[in-house]
Amino acid sequence: MKGIYHIKSISELHGMLGCDPPKHPSVSLIRFSDMKFPVGEAEFSGATVDFYVISMKDSSGQMKYGKGYYDFEEGTMLFAAPNQIMFHSHLSDEILDTDGWSLFIHPDILYGTALAEKMNDYTFFSYETDEALHLSKQERTKINTCVDNIKEEYGQNIDRHSNDLIVSNLDLLLSYCKRFYDRQFITRHKQSKGVVLKLEKLLLDYFKSEHALEKGLPTVKYCAEQLHFSPNYLSDLLKKETGKNTKEHIDYYLLEKAKQMLMATELNVNQIAYELGFENPKSFSKLFKKKTGATPTEFRQN
């Protein structure tokens, strides 16, 4: 077989990695040292999986996640949602020589639970590899305790309480990760402040130029790409630093430009909407009223 594998089940994953059969159909913890890659580089370029992946690296080294290689520091965590490319043949020797683990969670175990409703709130599952979570020794201990509890629970004889206890410990694990990411945003305040200033300049320049007329409204994805972040990471960073996510920052500078044009030019509302990048003037008027409490015409008159 060649190219990218698509792995649908935990059992299939264990087979590909050369591990013993899993003890639970929907959750498994595998240490890097236990992973084996039986296929050669020419035959194997990666694999996607139908489950969530949480990885902890306990020593320095490299691993492939998503778009590129990532240099792990001690106590570094990465997260991936289903259907991301998770393995690469070049890394087989590197993984075997490093210390760490990956926790695989199939969505089946979450169905009907409160955690299933919360998974979209954990935006770090779509962060890029260079936006990893770096942990202190104490934080790493908390994470490993949660993971050990999950492993212990699925390693026993499964009964009617097993899934509830596994999901409860997973919920606690993800709650800690969210807290530690918030801490990371705070401790990197100087870096975050620089990002805020770069975004402000990016948006000011965008609306001063012909970009809006030529390209339409700036999107969250556009801003993230220009600042070299993933969309969710940028929004979370800005929210922690300023209280507003990327979309709210875009709307703020858009409305400031709209107000300026309404007061200082004789362009009609439709012309202003098109110059700001709106395809439909009604969308402009609706957003303007929602944010200011007045229609563009009422704002100009008053």
TrEMBL record:
Keywords: DNA-binding, Plasmid, Transcription, Transcription regulation. GO terms for molecular function: DNA-binding transcription factor activity; sequence-specific DNA binding. Gene3D superfamilies: Homeodomain-like (1.10.10.60). InterPro entries: Homeodomain-like_sf, HTH_AraC, Tscrpt_reg_AraC-type_HTH. It holds the Pfam family HTH_18. Residues 217-300 form the HTH araC/xylS-type domain. It comes from the Bacteria. PANTHER family: ARAC-FAMILY TRANSCRIPTIONAL REGULATOR, TRANSCRIPTIONAL REGULATORY PROTEIN. This is AraC family transcriptional regulator. It comes from Fulvitalea axinellae. The lineage of its organism: Bacteria, Pseudomonadati, Bacteroidota, Cytophagia, Cytophagales.
